[in-house]
Amino acid sequence: MQTFPDPTMIRGKDGRWYAYGTTNPIDGKNEHILPMLTSPDMVHWTYAGDVYTGDDHPSWWPNGTRPWAPDIRYVNGTYHLTYALSTGGVALATSPHPTGPWTDHGLIVPAGGSGCPTGNIDQAMYTDVNGDNYLYWGSYDTICGAKMNAEATEVTGPVTQIARGRRMEGGFVVRRDDKYYLFYSDAGCCDGAFSGYTVKVGRSDSPLGPFTTPTGVDLMDLTSKDGIVLAANGNGWVGPGHNAIQTDLSGQDWLVYHAIPSSAPEFGQATTTWGTTITNLSRRPLMIDRLDWIDGWPVVRAGAGPSTGEQPAPVTTWTVGGTFNEGKDGWTGPWKLASDPDSLGYLTGKGSTSELSDGTVEGDVRVEADLRLGEDGTAAGLFVTRENGARNITAWLDREQGALVVTTKVNGRTTTVSSPLPASFDYGSWHNVAAERRGNALVVSVSADRLGDPVATVATTLPDGAPTSGAIGVTTRGAADADNVGAAPLYRPVTERVPDPVLGKQLPAYSDEFDGTGSPTGWTKVRNPSATLSNGSLVWPTQNAELYLGNNTASILLRDAPQGDFAVETKLTFNGTKGNQQAGLLLYENDDRWLKLTHSILPLNNGGGAVLHQTEFGKEGPRPGTTPPTAVANAPMFGGPAAQTTWLRLLYHYDEENGEHDVRMASSTDGTHWIWGGTWSLPRTGPVRIGLISMNTAGATATFDYLRTYEVTSR
């Protein structure tokens, strides 16, 4: 598909993966309303229809609305698809099958007056460990959350603001190791090669926060945030964001997102479902990259960013197991084949019986199954490893105990560990039971949809003598069904991040400690900047002037840059309080081709006059596809927190193969610990010069303690 924005994904009970995207011309010509894809392996995707069509959609939709940003969940045996409307509001559709037909439930968040002071779009659901359902939503610039009813069909709880930041949106919550992680995107999603989208995360002990970043910044603080999960890295993909998460059969997590190819970032023209023509629509294909959890925090590919070229694929085939869609070959036992439209083939058993695999597993392994109980069923179990009747490890959904129960039998001795299931747990609908064994450590979890929302987890150390090899299978006390039973070697976690760039020796000829008094020397002045030296610093009041598209009125200080890779750094103290005041670093070809990293003061949308202190990484240059190329585009990307004193860095590399400046940003609030952010690329027509700026709105003062330029020993 040429484009598939805002993707979300689920594994259906038929064993296939399903993806859902924003209304877009996925074939490059005509729009599809909430298109659906299906895949056997998360790599090869086939179009599976649209949730709605122009002739068949809810009659209450406002004319011309374009449904956006779907989210898919499985709740009590039913698929819940929430989506946003471009005119505002969040709606719900449900179906017994992942591709419909869909039943409309109308708006569950109104277009206005929802209690969240922001755009009422970009929603995602989450089910907590106690069975409570939550909905998260919000865009530009606040994310909110609230409880839903038990059926997950309406919002019932008070609305809580949980995060705010410039252009913050796309909240998605998962639970891991008793912590809640709120993923979100900030900066611009959809401006072609100038899209600054970046995925970030905060962590909490509660589903409604407070969420904090790795450096301890509260997501409600009025500053840009660290906790970068995914950012552009200069490899031809820009604006990676609006994520969901999927887990493969080995237990490896994958970030599902969209990104924009900078070489072909936009469609020329497409037709909407309503017959209107749209132009310059960003091309945002579906992307999937490995998500690592390192020191308790998620990051894509250990921090390497979006991939390009061939990569190891998700594990989507079991070494032992099956979906039973083609029969029960490879299994031994009395359980019978059955079928329904959602699951296709599955097994059904009665009494105290078991079904075992012919093949065996050993070592570190992930074993999973979808299980449900019949009306007279008291427990359904997954054999994690069964050597024989006296030596086995079994995970039970136990209705009588109301718990996930893990038993380990070793030569007549049984060890039992359990975790309560929610009082609302529906034993009659499918639930995934997944067991991961690494050495003698076993973790078993129960969820409805494998989307990072376990409702019960047991973590235990296996006793001596526990079987390390044997069959897998299912077992029951009373009536039960089983589907998608299989095992694969457990993934190997990545435990170390990609190293940060390393700076070499300082280059004095390209640096300035700002000693002396009066006007700075060794700099080229553009439009007569009012900067002076005082007490070992460069002091420069902001001015009512711009460096934006055709408004090139701001003053600049410039000096030559060294050849080859280099890094430039400054220590900036900034007392701005008004919207759009900014000061910082500049890499400059001319007034219409530059990259800058600033401490910027930006208004908070619907924030009652509040402003945000942001590390803003921007660029200006020609928009690809224009003839002749003209400087008509300007874009931000946001990095880590900004403080009264903030250290700023730009890391420069000339990409000779593509003829581009590749520039990466970093910032620090103590001069020691650096937050490395994303990379902007800009076609090169000549060398850049190093610059400083202090501009946009008068009334603030920028104090630059130094400007230092360094060699770069690793990028």
Please describe the topology of this protein.
Layout lengths: L7 E4 L5 E4 L12 E7 L6 E7 L14 E9 L2 E8 L4 E6 L7 E7 L14 E4 L5 E5 L4 E6 L12 E5 L4 E8 L2 E8 L11 E7 L23 E3 L6 E11 L5 E9 L7 E3 L5 E3 L6 E9 L2 E4 L19 E3 L8 E2 L3 E5 L3 E6 L4 E9 L2 E9 L5 E10 L2 E8 L4 E8 L2 E8 L10 E8 L2 E7 L8 E6 L7 E9 L2 E10 L12 E5 L17 E3 L5 E3 L2 E5 L5 E2 L2 E2 L3 E5 L5 E9 L7 E9 L2 E11 L7 E12 L8 E11 L3 E11 L4 E9 L6 E9 L5 E7 L5 E14 L1
Antiparallel strand pairs: 1-2, 2-3, 3-4, 5-6, 6-7, 7-8, 9-10, 10-11, 11-12, 13-14, 14-15, 15-16, 17-18, 18-21, 19-20, 21-22, 23-37, 24-27, 25-26, 26-37, 27-36, 28-33, 28-37, 29-30, 29-36, 30-31, 31-32, 33-34, 34-35, 38-54, 39-44, 40-41, 41-54, 42-43, 44-53, 45-50, 45-54, 46-47, 46-53, 47-48, ...
Brief descriptors of the model:
715 residues, mainly beta, 8-stranded antiparallel beta sheet
What does this entry look like structurally?
The protein has 715 residues and is mainly beta. The protein has no helices and 54 strands. Strands 23, 25, 26, 28, 33, 34, 35 and 37 form an eight-stranded antiparallel β-sheet that branches.
Provide a concise account of the structure shown.
Belongs to the glycosyl hydrolase 43 family. Pfam families: GH43_C2, Glyco_hydro_43. With 715 residues, the protein is mainly beta.
Residue share in helices? Answer: under 10%
Please report the number of helical segments. Answer: 0
Q: Tell me the radius of gyration.
A: 28 Å
**Structural class given helices, strands, pairing?**
mainly beta
The major pleated sheet works out as: 8 strands, antiparallel
Shape: elongated
Strand content: over 45%
Mean pLDDT: 96
Distance between the termini: 33 Å
Describe the oligomeric state of these chains in a short phrase: single chain
Spans where pLDDT lies below 50 across 5 or more residues? none
Number of strands: 54
Family: Belongs to the glycosyl hydrolase 43 family.
Keywords: Glycosidase, Hydrolase
Pathway: Glycan metabolism; L-arabinan degradation
Domain Beta-xylosidase C-terminal Concanavalin A-like: 511-660
